[in-house]
């Protein structure tokens, strides 16, 4: 099979979807790997390292898209890449379709197959390809939130940890999953007073057992959310409904209840955001202010720490890439229901219920759609 790795073109995105070891594994199994020139530079990986592992370095991204049967990326294809997507081609990356109707319809129209990192599950029901980036984003959310609480950044002028004789900051974490627990871990380690809100009582019991004394757990409802954000200097939006748009937990009117200069870091922005006033931002221009509240809504937070994130991501994606290249994704998904969960769109059909529901599109199980003549041929060597 021909596997293609384009350079990421999203603003301030420094990750790359494959390491040299991945190239070595694929080429050693008889597959071809095309890497766009400069794709790994943001993660500290030179073209020569890919070449020595057996990859072909390609200057024109269009050549990768035209030749590769399996495209492996980090972030969703951007509009300039949509015309290059071919019928029967397989795209393996983060998509977050529920937050982007235009992307959803473009991939549907392409007749390609989209396997989304964020909905693929493992044997335990976990999200193995989302987890490492959620860990990075959760930890970064406190790092960024602490920075934007500084007065020159339009924040309240508060040191997250406080100092002897001066109280630390109050941090409210909306969601106790991977993002939320990692955010709470870092915030608590810095000495802040942390409140985690979630609707899963078993998860709250677990977090209560493992957390230090400066972490409090609360059942999440409209009243406790309002009370928590009124007290908070920093709010972390860490809510996830797999494959679906994030629920709006903080409304526009709620901002008036908050402390002037408080900071919201909406990590859920990839799925549309859990704050009504959230809109996507970039690392180059990460924040904006509404009603005196600083909003940080960068859609690719882990991209800023490209080297750490690339290695963390590729550690978990490579085994799936190897299986797809060797056996074809349909064969793999037919044996592994968790992989089947990752198939969001298959040759013009929406195969993820949450995405179909979000945009009122017809839903079809991917297993009901057999391979067709439009599928790209498998080429080895």
> Low-confidence runs (pLDDT<50, min 5 residues)?
368-381
User: Helix coverage percent of residues?
Assistant: 25-40%
Categorize the overall geometry. Answer: globular
What structural category do the secondary elements indicate?
alpha/beta
State the total count of DSSP E strands. Answer: 15
Strand order of the largest sheet: 3-2-1-4-5-6-14-15
- Content of β-strand: 15-25%
The separation of the N and C termini measures 7 Å
Radius of gyration computed on alpha carbons: 21 Å
Largest sheet: 8 strands, mixed
Order of helices and strands: EHEHEHEEHEHEHEHEHEEEEHHHEEH
Q: Please, how many helices?
A: 12
Give the overall average pLDDT: 94
What does the secondary structure layout of this molecule look like, with pairings?
Blueprint: E1 2-5, H1 20-28, E2 32-36, H2 47-53, E3 56-58, H3 61-67, E4 70-72, E5 90-93, H4 101-110, E6 113-116, H5 131-148, E7 170-174, H6 178-189, E8 193-198, H7 201-210, E9 215-219, H8 222-231, E10 234-237, E11 263-266, E12 287-290, E13 293-296, H9 306-327, H10 329-335, H11 337-342, E14 343-346, E15 349-350, H12 353-358
Parallel strand pairs: 1-2, 1-4, 2-3, 4-5, 5-6, 7-8, 7-10, 8-9, 10-11, 11-13
Antiparallel strand pairs: 6-14, 12-13, 14-15
Plain-language structure description:
This protein is of the alpha/beta class. The chain is built from twelve helices and 15 strands. The chain has helices at 20-28, 47-53, 61-67, 101-110, 131-148, 178-189, 201-210, 222-231, 306-327, 329-335, 337-342, 353-358, and strands at 2-5, 32-36, 56-58, 70-72, 90-93, 113-116, 170-174, 193-198, 215-219, 234-237, 263-266, 287-290, 293-296, 343-346, 349-350. The chain has an eight-stranded mixed beta sheet with strand order 3-2-1-4-5-6-14-15, with helices on both faces. Strands 9-8-7-10-11-13-12 form a seven-stranded mixed beta sheet, with helices on both faces. Helix 7 links the parallel strand 8 and strand 9. Helix 1 packs parallel to helix 2 (47-53), helix 5 (131-148) packs across helix 6 and helix 9 (306-327) packs across helix 10. The longest helix is centred in the last third of the chain and has 22 residues, at 306-327. It starts with a strand and ends in a 23-residue tail after the last helix. 51% of the residues are buried. Residues 368-381 have low confidence and may be disordered.
């Amino acid at each position: 099979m021909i596997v293609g790795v384009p350079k990421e073109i999203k603003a301030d995105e420094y990750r790359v979807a494959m390491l040299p070891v991945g190239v070595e594994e694929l080429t050693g199994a008889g597959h071809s790997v095309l890497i766009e020139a400069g794709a790994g530079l943001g993660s500290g990986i030179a073209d020569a390292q890919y070449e020595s592992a057996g990859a072909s370095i390609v200057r024109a991204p269009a050549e990768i898209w035209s030749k590769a049967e399996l495209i492996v990326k980090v972030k969703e294809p951007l509009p300039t890449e949509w015309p290059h997507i071919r019928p029967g081609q397989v795209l393996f990356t983060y998509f977050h379709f529920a937050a982007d109707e235009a992307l959803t319809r473009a991939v549907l129209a392409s007749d390609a197959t989209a396997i989304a990192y964020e909905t693929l599950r493992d044997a335990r029901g976990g999200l193995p390809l989302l987890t490492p980036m959620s860990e990075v984003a959760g930890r970064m959310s406190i790092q960024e939130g602490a920075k934007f609480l500084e007065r020159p950044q339009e924040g309240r002028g508060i040191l997250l940890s406080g100092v002897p004789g001066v109280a630390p900051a109050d941090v409210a974490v909306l969601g106790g999953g991977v993002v939320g627990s990692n955010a709470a871990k870092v915030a608590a380690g810095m000495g802040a007073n942390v409140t985690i809100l979630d609707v899963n009582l078993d998860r709250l019991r677990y977090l209560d057992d493992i957390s230090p004394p400066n972490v409090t757990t609360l059942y999440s409802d409209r009243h406790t959310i309002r009370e928590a954000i009124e007290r908070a200097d920093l709010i972390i939006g860490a809510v996830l409904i797999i494959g679906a748009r994030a629920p709006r937990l903080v409304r526009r009117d709620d901002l008036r209840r908050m402390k002037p200069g408080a900071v919201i870091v909406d990590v859920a922005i990839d799925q549309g955001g859990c704050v009504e006033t959230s809109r996507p931002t970039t690392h180059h221009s990460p924040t904006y202010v509404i009603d005196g509240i600083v909003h940080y809504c960068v859609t690719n937070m882990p991209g800023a720490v490209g080297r750490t994130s690339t290695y963390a991501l590729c550690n978990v994606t490579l085994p799936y890439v190897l299986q797809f290249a060797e056996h074809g994704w349909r064969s793999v998904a037919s044996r592994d229901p968790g992989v089947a969960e990752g198939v969001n769109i298959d040759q013009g059909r929406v195969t993820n219920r949450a995405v179909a529901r979000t945009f009122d599109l017809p839903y079809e199980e991917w297993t009901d759609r057999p391979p067709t003549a439009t599928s790209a041929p498998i080429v080895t060597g």
